[in-house]
Amino acid sequence: TRRLAHGGYKRYFYSHPKPLREQFAVSRKRLETVGKRALVFIDTNVYLDFYRINLPNYRSLLEYMGNIREHIFVSAMIRNECERNRLSAYEQGNQLQDGKAAIALGRVNPHHSDDPTAIDELNKEIRSFQQEVSRKSKDFHRRISEEHNRNLRAILHGEDDVSRALEPIFCKAALETEDQLARARKRKEYGQPPGKKNDPLGDQLTWEQLLDYCKGCDLIFLVSRDDDYFEYIEKQPYLRSTLFRELRERGVSEANCFTDVASFFKAFKDADVVPHGSLPAKEVVEAAQKEVEESSAEEQEWRQSVHYKRRALEQYLAMKRLGEAGLGGEIVGGFPSVCPRAADGLHRVGAVSAKPSRFYTGWTMQGPCSLCGELIDTGEPYDD
Questions:
Q1: β-strands 363-368, 353-356: how paired?
Q2: CB atoms within 10 A of CB 219
Q3: What is the per-residue pLDDT for 283?
Q4: Which one, 102, 196, 240, 272, has the greatest CB density within 10 A?
Q5: Residue 112: helix, strand or coil by DSSP?
Q6: 347: which residues sit within 8 A by CB, 6+ positions away?
Q7: Nearest CA-CA partner of 288 in 86, 65, 44
Q8: Residue ranges of the chain with pLDDT lower than 50?
Q9: How far apart, in whole angstroms, are the C-alpha atoms of residue 341 and residue 41?
């Protein structure tokens, strides 16, 4: 098939009768991409989504990633970050409630002169029903908690389904060289993307390794939810100009950007890089994309809910009290959001960097929530 990539062989191939061409099942588009080397880069946050989310069709795409592992570049840094954060990612996406079930059935009080016996019986049934619901709720909570603990132990030791599926990909993780490490440090000092000022040396090192690895590639697919890599035009991600220039200097002519695996597989299949039999069917990809869209719509609905606004106000008042106690800056307007993916409404913020604040005077330390990706202002003043 590789030999058919050359023009003379294409002409020879298409000179044969149509049944013979159909027997080989090689399309003209496939012929044009044969011989091209495609590279796939998947960021840590996308791998961690498979531990975090509970979307069955989306999670089913994981098994197909192993089929294209020869095209996937993974650094030792990404592998280590996944191993380090996979347990917390699962906990963030699978939080248990307190085990209590509230039933909105109150006691009925008689306000008429008829025999109240029927009302007394009804109140007894209500109490009995509420007790039964509470008992079953506690029992379900106990059983769910046991299953969660089994999952946590499996993830901790890398014996869960996600870790096993990723092992064929991660086993070929590329170690950095001294030269790549030196270039990554220089990139961080110069403030070149990717990576943040106050983060450990991670994204910079992975990118320098990727630049060396992609030499000779014609096209590259990047999947990430990290804004350090992408700019957005009408919600469509595009690689930052600096990063794209560096790829072009190494011979890459096309960079395709995605924020989820479902969108990536759709484009990867359309590119005819590998045989379609090793990729998920169109129906599977479309079902996964629908799950992602519905999940995003649920988040938007949550953001409009009264419960969400009450949580936001509570968080705002708590931050205001910190400011009055001298532990934060002066609040100048508005109040921060709460996390739509957290049962307690609290954001999980890891690495932070200094940015101009929307809620306080001056600059504060801010960072993305690892659950919903929203940029969160911690209120901690930036003194540098």
A1: antiparallel
A2: 19
A3: 93
A4: 196
A5: coil
A6: 338, 339, 369, 371, 372, 374, 376
A7: 65
A8: 1-35, 98-104, 111, 306, 328-335
A9: 26
